[in-house]
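Lab notebook, bench 4. Continuing the backlog of folding jobs that were queued last week. Each job is logged with the same field layout so the records can be merged later without manual cleanup. Today's entry covers CoA-binding protein, a 128-residue chain. Filled in by technician R.K.

JOB TYPE: sequence-to-structure
TARGET: CoA-binding protein
LENGTH: 128
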Amino acid sequence: MLEDCETWAVVGLSGNPDRTAYRIARFLQARGKRVVPVHPDAPTVLGEQGYASLADVPFPVDVVDVFRRSEAAGEFADQAVAIGAKGVWFQLGVLDPDAYERTAAAGVPMVMDTCPAIEWPHLAGSVA
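JOB STATUS: finished
OUTPUT FIELD FOLLOWS
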């Protein structure tokens, strides 16, 4: 996902630079990824228009990156499948084995309990 996917919808991204979602979105953007804020308030963050839901995003999304508590995260995996995302990423501490099973059964790759900033250095030829 880190190498092949360009457009990342970040669920829970607000304009608060103290939040982890903001820092990771900025990290992804600095590495050439397009970041799409998905938040009920639909804020513009890091220069990108936000949307209240994944269904509101009017263009294809490659990865849905979820910054929500485990008990609320599964619905976003389901929404990611529904919009045709190529992958789902649950951040550190976000676990939902049932959502993983549903997403995998739909043929959509998913990772849980890790962070792009942690995984990026493992890419061949990457510069962290």
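OBSERVATION: The longest strand covers residues 7-11.
SIGNED: R.K.
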